[in-house]
Amino acid sequence: MSGLAPRSRRALGRELTRLANASVAESLAHSTQRPEPSMEPVRIGFTGAPGAGKSTLISRLAKHRLSACREKGGVAILGIDPTSPLSGGSILGDRIRMDAIANEPDLYIRSLASRSSHDGLADNVLDLLEAVEGYGFREVLLETVGVGQAEHAIRHSVDTLVMVLQPNAGDAIQAMKSGVLELADIYVINKADLPGAKKSASEIRGIVQRSQAAWRPPVIETSQKHEEGLAKLDSAISEHLAWQAEHCNASETLRRRRHYHVQSLIVRRVSELLEHQPQLLDATSLAEAYDCILLALAEDTQ
Ligand SMILES: Nc1nc2c(ncn2[C@@H]2O[C@H](COP(=O)(O)OP(=O)(O)O)[C@@H](O)[C@H]2O)c(=O)[nH]1
Ligand SMILES: [Mg+2]
Description:
binds magnesium ion, 11 helices, seven-stranded parallel beta sheet, binds guanosine-5'-diphosphate, 2 domains, alpha/beta
């Protein structure tokens, strides 16, 4: 692909808007019409607290990834922004629009609100990823805000997960010590120009070194003021993808993804159902309410 034609860009934009707002029935109907991607696409997830510098980092990294992907189908960036931004983190699109890459023909950038989703991803994130891939993009960089369970949800959706931390991110380091955050494939201490970066990086290295996992996650310091860390991050992502291609079972990965996808559709469908039929909860016992809901789902013609 040498750039997505403007007409296709507009069509993809409309499709993403439709999917981000789709009901479960609409998502399912859409999934049967979608073309299969021609090549196995790659998904790289970035998570971390709002304001950690994810959007800034991704916009810079995209340039590196693009130089390797241009011939194979370009790079798309999907940003899932919280519906009610609580911190200083800016909307991905705004940040990147200021950047020189905004006019790259092989790059597609889109931000979407996370709507009702509780896991930090848009409700239909897997649909969104598949839609982008259906348009021939070789790599998708997915930005999401780390809010508790988000890391678990994103873990199922991407091939490589990068956790972006800031210097002195005390809470995150505490969480890692207790094993809550040991999900990422690569840890980044961003804003390495600020004091405390070296100390945070060595604390995280200490934790990561204790891991028994076959892949030992690298800990990389990055800063928007230096290119060196960015090049290291780019290589680490490529190394992890290559390692995974060699060591992981692709059908197992697809199965895990299907598991998460089906599960998230069912959870959403139950929410939709209870919104329209709240009386289902009026049963005399919890077990009865549960049975009533299962029955309603079984009879569900949407
Ligand atoms: N000092 C410093 N500030 C940075 C760096 N990268 C990003 N920032 C600032 O951090 C703030 C949040 O950045 P943003 O990319 O929107 O964070 P996100 O919410 O994680 O996507 C912005 O004001 C950026 O200018 C960095 O490497 N060093
Ligand atoms: Mg952001």
